């Protein structure tokens, strides 16, 4: 007899009936906090718990009264796209005192609240943990003062706390990204892109100061994402004499024909002796030493404001749901935890371990142990710093290794935002490793026509922020022209290939491997970096370009929904790209707050469509005025966008009207998002380092040439769960549905129930993959670590 999957339908197994959950935001605000609040409220109500808002953070908890308000499903409608925190946040001196916490405990007990979801930084979370530790003592005091009944001590014996980190600085150890960081990067990059055009016009140098008093993450990643000439961060102050080095670098850049310089300074930047380095100091230095026309822009609170990015909405929604799960599973002995993401996986980490690690970073910086501070920030921060140094600072020709290898880079398939960042990274890392780098225009079509040219370091300057494909890209596969391509490989003495592209790039590598038996020219290391808005490449959970497309969808959906503001009830049917892959429709639906998303991977029929219409009709009879339905372009050949629009129009008569939009190629256009720039840069750098390693391994001294014909010499570099992994493309054939051009298994399908739950559908949700409590890994420095490749 088959055993039931006890973790499959958690609605039946992890009931919140009789529980009261309160959610508060504390400390500085961050974009995405509202998405987290919405997810906590709706998930809490879904499992049968009572959910409360605590307005104005800990101040509201201390003051009580109207500050603690019961939440309803409708009370969190239309807040997903709003920046900041609609329930308010305030710094509270009173809560730091015992008397303040006693008042807070009294106010929670009055409402029967023993489960707290705290969204804030390390200070807010540390305060929550102290409150939890004191809880039983506080209740005893309240009984002694006659403020609560004696049986309340037993009834409310334990306070359970789960934290979500909301901080634009990304300064909390143990988590890859905190809520608000990606949105802050969007604000910074929008400003940098705008400044670059005016700087170029006047041949100016711009010094940008970004937030980060104790953490240089925003400065470092924005420098990586825009190709800044210099960056100053508190964790890794520049060596003594940095002033001369920086001025020489700026001067050398101008001498190569560049018309502008960008310097990014974190507000907490210091030198090796702890002396602050301000944006004004940097400006005066450039003017004095070089005489360049220099301007300072201090971004300030612009970075905190605005609409949350698609990434922050998805992160916050997932974390909100995970926080409720963690609260339902907690016991009196469970330590307070933080829910977070590593890679694309949910994790739960002991709150105080993370706080202590975060405090260790500051102690390392205060003690001038800067290498240790960088290590303690985590692998992601360390890799960002290493990659920036590799790409921004060109070594003199005399210091470069001489490899005598020629490496060709090309784009294959449809254009995707971030491709140019990947090409720039590959070219510069290749040059740093001593290779001659060649660019192939127009993919394999340009290859067989001989459109191949050598590219130098300066040729790819300014490419990071450019959308589309500057090399040119075509869907042409190599099989028809394999003889001519082999001839071009031989003529140009190409020793390795790095391909940036989508499903066509994957098919191209399979064809080239087959051609190895006939043409030895293809017996060279070949690697593919996935880049497609559809995110349909097997072997990788994410592709370059998908995040930019998601942001385009989310922004457009926000505007479309807003267009119905103040009018009668309306449902929008929106068609997204993706071929047969439903990633954009599903994850875009989660980010935009959709009521349904139709995809090929999850078959549906007329009964499902009818159920969706009835569900929306019920919702429209309440205070909810707008509905959003996404449809993947190839989800069903009969249930077209027009058909679904007409069905909703007919069945919704008298309750709502319908409108349709086909988003089309706007999803492929535009400047790449910070995530895609950063992801493309780092993954391509790693791919080029693999190429160097394989060239060394496969060089036959006797024959004086490279010969690589093993399966592992032709790989796809993809993100799998938490790591970047090289996988032989031949081994990925079994994981691929070639007819529909999608992987057979796709991780994001597990996110679909979240969208349904948050849209008020009763559904099953597999929690077997939910976060498990892990310990924070301490990444301490060793002597040899400084030179380890990414």
Automatic annotation (TrEMBL):
Its cofactor is Mg(2+). Pathway: Carbohydrate degradation; glycolysis; D-glyceraldehyde 3-phosphate and glycerone phosphate from D-glucose: step 3/4. It catalyses: beta-D-fructose 6-phosphate + ATP = beta-D-fructose 1,6-bisphosphate + ADP + H(+). Keywords: Acetylation, Allosteric enzyme, ATP-binding, Cytoplasm, Glycolysis, Glycoprotein, Kinase, Magnesium, Metal-binding, Nucleotide-binding, Phosphoprotein, Transferase. Residues 1-393 are annotated as: N-terminal catalytic PFK domain 1. SUPFAM superfamilies: Phosphofructokinase. Its main location: cytoplasm. The active site is at residue 169. It is an enzyme of class 2 (transferase). It comes from the Eukaryota. ATP binds at residues 28, 91-92, 121-124. Catalyzes the phosphorylation of D-fructose 6-phosphate to fructose 1,6-bisphosphate by ATP, the first committing step of glycolysis. Belongs to the phosphofructokinase type A (PFKA) family. ATP-dependent PFK group I subfamily. Eukaryotic two domain clade 'E' sub-subfamily. This is ATP-dependent 6-phosphofructokinase.
């Amino acid at each position: 007899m088959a055993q039931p999957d006890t973790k499959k339908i958690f609605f039946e197994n992890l009931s919140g009936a009789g529980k009261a959950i309160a959610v508060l935001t504390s400390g500085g605000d961050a974009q995405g906090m509202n998405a987290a609040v919405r997810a906590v409220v709706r998930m809490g109500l879904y499992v049968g718990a009572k959910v409360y808002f605590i307005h104005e953070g800990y101040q509201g908890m201390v003051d009580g009264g109207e500050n603690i308000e019961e939440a309803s499903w409708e009370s969190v409608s239309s807040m997903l796209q709003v920046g900041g925190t609609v329930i308010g946040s305030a710094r509270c001196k009173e809560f730091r005192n015992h008397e303040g916490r006693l008042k807070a405990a009294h106010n929670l007990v009055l409402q029967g609240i023993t489960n707290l979801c705290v969204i804030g930084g390390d200070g807010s979370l540390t305060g929550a943990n102290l409150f939890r530790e004191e809880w039983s003592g506080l209740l005893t005091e309240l009984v002694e003062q006659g403020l609560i009944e004696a049986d309340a001590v037993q009834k409310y014996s334990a306070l359970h706390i789960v934290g979500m980190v909301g901080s634009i600085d990304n300064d909390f150890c143990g988590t890859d990204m905190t809520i608000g960081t990606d949105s802050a990067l969007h604000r910074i990059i929008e400003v940098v892109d705008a400044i670059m055009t005016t700087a170029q016009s006047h041949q100016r140098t711009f010094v940008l100061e970004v937030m980060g008093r104790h953490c240089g993450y925003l400065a470092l990643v924005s420098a990586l994402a825009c190709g800044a000439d210099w960056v100053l961060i508190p964790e890794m102050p520049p060596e003594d004499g940095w002033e001369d080095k920086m001025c020489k670098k700026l001067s050398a850049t101008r001498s190569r024909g560049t018309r502008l310089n960008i310097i990014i300074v974190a507000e907490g930047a210091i030198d090796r002796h702890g002396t602050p380095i301000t944006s004004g100091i940097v400006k005066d230095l450039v003017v004095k030493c070089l005489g360049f026309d220099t301007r300072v822009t201090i971004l300030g609170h612009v970075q905190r404001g605005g609409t949350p990015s698609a990434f922050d909405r998805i992160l916050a929604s997932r974390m909100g749901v995970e926080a409720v799960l963690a609260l339902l599973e907690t016991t009196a002995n469970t330590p307070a935890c933080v829910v977070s993401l590593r890679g694309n996986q949910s994790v739960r980490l002991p709150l105080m371990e993370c706080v202590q690690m975060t405090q260790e970073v500051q102690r390392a910086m205060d003690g001038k142990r800067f290498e240790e501070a960088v290590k303690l920030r985590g692998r992601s921060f360390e890799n960002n710093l290493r990659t920036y140094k590799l790409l921004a600072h060109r070594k003199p020709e005399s210091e470069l290794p001489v490899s005598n290898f020629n490496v060709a880079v090309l784009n294959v398939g449809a254009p995707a935002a971030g491709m140019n960042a990947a090409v720039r990274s590959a070219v510069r890392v290749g040059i740093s490793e001593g290779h001659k780098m060649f660019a192939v225009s127009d993919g394999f079509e340009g290859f067989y026509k001989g459109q191949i040219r050598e590219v130098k370091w300066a040729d790819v300057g300014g490419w990071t922020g450019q959308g589309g494909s500057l090399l040119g890209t075509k869907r042409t596969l190599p099989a028809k022209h394999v003889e001519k391509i082999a001839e071009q490989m031989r003529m140009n003495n190409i020793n390795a290939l790095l391909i940036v592209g989508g499903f066509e790039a994957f098919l191209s590598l399979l064809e080239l491997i087959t051609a190895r038996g006939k043409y030895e020219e293809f017996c060279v290391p070949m690697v593919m970096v996935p880049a497609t808005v559809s995110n349909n490449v097997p072997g990788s959970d994410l592709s370059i370009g998908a995040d930019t497309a998601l942001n385009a969808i989310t922004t457009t959906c926000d505007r479309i929904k807003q267009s119905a503001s103040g009018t009668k009830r309306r449902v929008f049917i929106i068609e997204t790209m993706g071929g047969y892959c439903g990633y954009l429709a599903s994850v875009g639906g989660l980010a935009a707050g959709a009521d349904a998303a139709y995809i090929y991977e999850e078959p549906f029929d007329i009964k499902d469509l009818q159920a969706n219409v009835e569900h929306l009709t019920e919702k429209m009879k309440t205070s909810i005025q707008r509905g959003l339905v996404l449809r993947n372009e190839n989800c069903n050949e009969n249930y077209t966008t027009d058909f679904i629009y007409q069905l909703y129009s007919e069945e919704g008569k008298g309750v709502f009207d319908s409108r349709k939009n086909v988003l089309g190629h706007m999803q492929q256009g535009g400047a790449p998002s910070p995530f895609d720039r950063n992801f493309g840069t780092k993954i391509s750098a790693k791919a080029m380092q693999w190429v160097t390693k394989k060239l060394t391994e496969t060089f036959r001294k006797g024959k004086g040439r490279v010969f690589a014909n093993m399966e592992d010499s032709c790989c796809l570099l993809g993100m799998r769960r938490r790591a970047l992994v090289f996988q032989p493309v031949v081994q990925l054939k079994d994981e691929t549905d070639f007819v529909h051009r999608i992987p057979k298994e796709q991780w994001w399908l597990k996110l679909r129930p979240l969208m349904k739950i948050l849209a008020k559908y009763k559904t099953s949700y597999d929690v077997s993959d939910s976060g498990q409590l892990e310990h924070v890994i301490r990444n301490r420095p060793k002597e040899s670590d400084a030179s380890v490749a990414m």
